[in-house]
Each structure stands twice: as C-alpha cells, then as structure tokens.
Amino acid sequence: MTLISTFDVKPEAFKTMLQDTTFTLEPFFSQYLSTINVGAARGEIHARCEQAGSELANVILPPVNLVEALPDPIVISLM
Question: What is the reported pTM?
Fold first, then answer.
C-alpha cells in the first residue's frame, strides 16, 4: 500500500524551517503530520479489509504513540 499525504505550510512558517543547508521539522510538527498519516493509513487498511470481506477487518489496530516515536527534531540536509 502506498499512501501519500500533502500539507500546505504558510510561507513564513516554511522559511523558519529552512536554515542554510538544512530543513528542520520540530517534534510537535512532525508528530502532528505523522498522526494524520498514521490515522489515514489505519483507516485505509480497515476499509480495504472490510471491502475484501477479510476477518482482519474485525481486528482493532492499536494506536501508535508518535510522541515517543518522534521525540527529536527531524533535520534533513539539503546538500
């Protein structure tokens, strides 16, 4: 399964994420975006299983604690 999510960020906020040759996502922001993505993926998996008549549709997928999974800033080098 491939899931693509796109987000708009205000230009002023985006500029604060760019510093010289790095792009940084602070923990709160990466946790927020990831929460949306993980929720969408869980919903898509459930819907596809339900549509296929799979018994996996009856399984409740546990939530993922993204605060623990993404405690540090994500720093991406642009060079």
Answer: 0.78
